[in-house]
Structure formats: structure tokens, C-alpha cells
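Example (one chain per record):
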Amino acid sequence: MSLIMAFSGILGAFMAGDQREILFRGEASSIAILETEFYCNRICTVEQLQTRASALGVSIAIRDDKCKVRQEDGLLIGEVTETDGAEIRKRRLCVSCGQYAIVEKTGPAWTILSRGEGSHFLVLGNETTRNIAYRCIREHWKTGGGTLEDAVKILLLAMQEAARTTASVSREYTLVQTRTKVNVLDRLDR
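Predicted structure:
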């Protein structure tokens, strides 16, 4: 899992996403042990991940060039994919000015998990990366709201902090923005 974080404000929306993708191969029980340790942040570095994977007989492939966020005609889309054997689960964050939706797809159709309007910070990630992002928001977002520039700084700070703290997030990230308001619900299946 990675970190995708967005701010949906009335006058602008921004989204950042890391670029790391990690693939595991091996016995399902060994992969489950490795993933549990990894996503609970008991494994904090790539070196620790490689060492533990080797000890469990799991092969891993890490790449840091997967683009997980994009802007399409005023809609910001961030997507993460998880595989469990043959099952593929996609979770998508769709953001525009003043609107958002989080949707999930495990079969042929998207299911709305949550949606809203107004100004919001939104986070997709594992427990560790979500905690880092929420801590950055709590510590740096001004009471009563801040500016769009403040929101962008928080997104960047959270991405950098997550990359320093966990091996599940790359140091490289993508940042996209929009100043356009579109109806998010009309465009969920893109």
C-alpha cells in the first residue's frame, strides 16, 4: 500500500501520491506474515524488507516509477491496487474543487465508500502512512482553516515524512492540482 493524500478546497484541489509498487511472490502464508510486519511498520527500510523477505522465502520486486495520481479534465484521481492471489481490489480517490468520493472495485462495478462536499483532507494508505498524514494535518493545519498553500505544504510534508518513516512509500511523488469544479459522482468510472 502506498500513500495518496488530497485536499479538496472550494477554490482548488490538490493530490499527491507516492510512486512505489512492491510485488511479493512465494507461499501465501509467508507473504501474509511479511505483509503484516511490513504494513504495521515493524519493517521500516527497504534493506529490512529484503532481509525479512529472504528469511521467509519470499521474493520481492520494488519499483519507484508507478504513477498513482492524475488529473483528467478537472478531476483528480488517485488509485491504489491490491492483489490477493487472483483477487484484485482497486481503491480510488476522486477529488474536485469542493467535492470528493472514495470508491472501491472488487468486481465489475465501482462501489461508493464515502463522498462529501466542502473542504477536506483525504488519505488512502496503510495504517502507518495514514497515521503520519493525519499527524501532519493535526500539527500544521491552522485552526479555523488555512490557505491553499498551507494545504499543499501539508501534503508535501506528509509525503516526505512517510518516505523517511516507512519502506512502503517512495521518496519520489507526483503532485497534481485543479481549480475546476466538476461533478465527481458523474465521473467515477474513468
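Caption: The two ends are 21 Å apart (CA to CA).
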